[in-house]
What does this fold into?
Amino acid sequence: MTLPALSHTTETFPESAADAAVLVIQDPEVAPEALTTFPGLADFLSGVGFRGSAGAHVRVHLPEITTLPLTVVSIGKEQTAATVRDAVATAVRTLTGFSRVAIGFAPGADAHAAAAAEGAVLGGYRFDDYRSDRGPSRADELVLHADLTDADVSRAVAVAEAVALVKDLVNVPAEWQSPAQLADSAVDAVRDLAVTVDVLDEKQLEEQGYGGILGVGRGSDRPARLVRLDYSPAGAARHIALVGKGITFDTGGLSLKPAASMVGMKFDMAGAATALAAVRAIAALGLPVRVTAWMCIADNMPSGRATRPGDVLRMLDGQTVEVLNTDAEGRLVMADGLVAASRENPDVIIDVATLTGAIIVALGMRHTGVMGSEEAVAEYMSAAESADELAWPLPLPDHMEESLDSPIADMVNANMGDRSGGSLFAGLFLRRFVGRTSDEADAPRIPWIHLDIAGSGEHKGSAYGFTEKGPTGATVRSLIAFAEASAKEA
It folds into this structure.
């Protein structure tokens, strides 16, 4: 991953060792007096018609303040952690060609320095591994002139590295991202942390009965993998299980996608990358919470070996699924992962997947769809709000259960001919593989949260904040916040 180094200082802004500077202000209409600290700034901004809306930025030449190239960025009228994070991220993302950048604040605009630190590193991310002409790069070093602790900086770096890890892995072309290669990347990502890793190859998956993962992957020349990561600190009071969809490329299988729909299907392993990144960050921060992740990895390819529409797969828990649509493959690999996670009886299971196009129809490209147990969903929504990530809860209607019925198996994997409630159908399918809290038949299911990131996991529009076109790392920061809240409650 390529991220800038971050440090902090209480010295006068800007430092002479910097190559350029960023000044964070509030909308001048809200706090005009704050600009009097910087001679000539108010007149300059007024002269160029600077409106001060959130994220607005302008390059300034004011030798009375500094001889360095200076960018002024506004957090808008309302100062929140989100507006500060996004403003700083915007400034760093758009400021190129300078190695060392100092970031300072106008009086009264420094109330969320920790969020500024996070935004600074997130905004400095870049992925240009395959460009022959990389052009001007973003800063290698960022110096935040703010009252921060080393812990604030460490958290900002851990969070940014987690988001960057997802982006790095998702950006890799499927040509170089086989299930085995993604498993190797997982091992490498946590090599220096207190995380144990187990990788099941295709023979072990067969021996242990992972029919969903194997059924999806058997059409490919690149065999499936299951990666289990476990961060288990002494005295952990809560056990969170993460299950991530890791389809390294999705052709749709024999239910082949149209050519245009296949573009970008290297993104279909973002859920597994998210689970990995969350474990990595939680372990790096040393949170007193146990986290286990299951990366369910397969290539969905058409061949003479591929699963056919109408085939029946026997899943890890023995339930059978009639596969009506081989392009509804994510729920098949996730089902095995949910069963495996349930067998360890965690306190809560969270699955994350680029699961349905229907979620984009329902919620657009920025909101994550959230389904599951009522209390657990509420807990996740609180974490998402604290992380400033957009999410929306959706129902799992009991009246739709009959649409899962199969005449020859326990259930079907797709509601063919009926496009209504496609995301809800997928959520209901997954719920059937969430285990019980005890061996009693009527025991409640383990608290469970399903995150559909098919829309929020990829951004296709204009850049904003630290988000550019491509993978977003959606839900990573929320999952970290969820673990942090769990640690506090414990």
Summary: The chain has a mean pLDDT of 95. The longest helix spans residues 150-171. The first strand starts at residue 5 and ends at 9.
